[in-house]
Please model this.
Amino acid sequence: MAGHELIERHLRTLAERLPGSVVDELADGLLASYDDQMERLGDPDAAARAALADFGDADAVTAAFVRASPARHAAFTLLVAGPIVGLCWGTALITADGWAAAIPLAARLAFGLLLGSAVLMLVTAVREQRHYHTVRLAALGGAGTVAVLDTVILGTVVTLVPPPSLLLLVALTGSVARIMLAIRAIPTLITRL
Amino acid sequence: MRAEALKGHLDGLLLATLEDGPQHGYAVKEALRDATGGKLDLPTGTVYPALHRLERAGLIKGSWSVVGGRRRRTYELTEQGRRSLAGARDQWQEFAAVISAALGGGPWPATN
Model:
């Protein structure tokens, strides 16, 4: 790649944070800018500095990509849905007619641990600013775990056949909606930038 | 011109640069700068995320080529993008007419 050491260093930093195809595209833009500046200024060092100043620093560029990423949006939606669905299940279980007591303590603890890790992954996806891959992986992990947890709770209800109630119906609907949300997001998180 | 002034208008501005034909990211940024006599000179690196967002929204379509040994992604307007650009133009004209009428209509009444 023809260019300047400063440009190469900038691109290496971006390559550590962004997907390869994005870096290829950014490299083309940055090198086109460098060529323009070389034509204007004639000095490689001055041209590289001018091109980099015009391009923006790596933190700002990465943050702009992360803000616009579908992974971050999916994670945010799932995080917002979390407390709503959680409140529905909490109310349904507290007011349950004893059926929830049949769920073993170990299963409850495992569920709680998985739920905590899902929340942690989704929060990471929303808060991370500098590493696009981290955002994508965290959102993917969070969405997958949420889908598994909701499926498990649906399976538990089907197995235990609790007495029907409006609260339980609302909670089940919330879980089904969240499974659909997660399943719809997962292919995008795998295939898209 | 300050970047905050562009809020809500950046998409329309980027779409407008592609109206005459396909462009790559750096050319889009340069076209925007040239069209505004240098008053709108966005950092090159921040134009790309906006183009990716427009592509995900189906307003533009990107394709790869190799130019001078470098991989280059070029964008063109889709039909949906053309409609969105027309809508952005209408909204802007309406907004500008309202604000111009308010700002150019003489001194504001005294408040005290």
In short: The first strand of chain B starts at residue 23 and ends at 24. The radius of gyration of chain B is 17 Å. The helical segments of chain B are 10-17, 25-35, 44-56, 79-103. The interface with chain A takes residues 24-27, 29, 41, 43-50, 52-53, 56, 67, 69-73 of chain B (CB under 8 Å).
